[in-house]
Design goal:
- The protein has about 200 residues and is of the alpha+beta class.
- It has 2 domains: about 60 residues; about 130 residues, Histidine kinase-like ATPase, C-terminal domain (Heat Shock Protein 90, 2-Layer Sandwich).
- About 50% of the residues lie in helices and about 20% in strands.
- The strands form 3 sheets. Strands 2-4-5-9-8 form a 5-stranded mixed β-sheet.
- Helix 1 runs antiparallel to helix 2 and helix 3 runs parallel beside helix 4.
- The two termini are about 35 Å apart.
- About 25% of the residues are buried.
């Protein structure tokens, strides 16, 4: 695992450089009264991708653990909407929320929030004008869904992507009464585009 350890060290260094760049951008915004929000968002997105790569590294070393805590689903969806608001507005994308679920559900809030943020970002890249984030409960448990009005996935399921593979693996780590979580991607969105569905038992 020495090669992986070296890669992980390099990724940590790259993340530190990104954070330094973000600080410099924030200082420039203050000093010159300009809005560089999209540049900061790009840096944050890059740091997020590096976090995903580190999470894959931890999985290879069997170090990944999930922390199940009761989470208010409506608040989680609103947090994702707030995280993505500036980026979506800059690209003229409307995010609709339709979250109806029990007041609290046991899940790893940090991991699930990250998965939904990534799903919304990906949907926004392909959407024409709308992204829809919804949640609910059925016989299989909790579901969280991100849909868009874009052209849909060119291939189902996508054959590559660190973020997607990691999200599917982390979903499966949510276990309750012998049932595992799952992630599915389809092109049957009510908006006409892609549909990302995360199910948690």
């Amino acid at each position: 695992m020495k090669a992986l350890d070296l890669l992980a060290s390099g990724i940590h260094d790259a993340k530190n450089q990104l954070f330094s760049a973000e600080s410099l951008i924030a200082a420039a915004e203050t000093a010159h009264g300009i809005d560089l929000g999209e540049a900061r968002f790009a840096i944050q997105a890059a740091a997020g991708r590096l976090n995903q790569t580190l999470a894959c590294y931890r999985q290879l070393r069997h170090e990944t653990r999930i922390a199940l805590i009761p989470t208010v689903i409506d608040e989680l969806c609103e947090e994702v909407a707030l995280d993505q608001r500036h980026h979506l507005t800059a690209h003229n994308i409307t995010l609709d929320l339709d979250c109806h679920a029990p007041d609290a559900w046991p899940l790893d809030r940090e991991l699930v929030t990250d998965m939904l943020n990534n799903a919304v970002q990906n949907a926004a890249r392909h959407a024409r004008s709308r992204v829809h984030l919804s949640s609910g409960e059925d016989a299989d448990g909790l579901w969280l869904c991100v849909e868009d009005d874009g052209p849909g996935y060119p291939q189902i399921p996508p054959s590559s992507g660190t973020g997607l593979l990691l999200a599917a693996s982390l979903a499966e780590m949510h276990v309750r009464q012998g049932r595992h979580g799952s992630l599915t991607l389809t092109n049957d969105s009510a908006l006409g585009g892609a549909r990302f569905t995360l199910r948690l038992p």
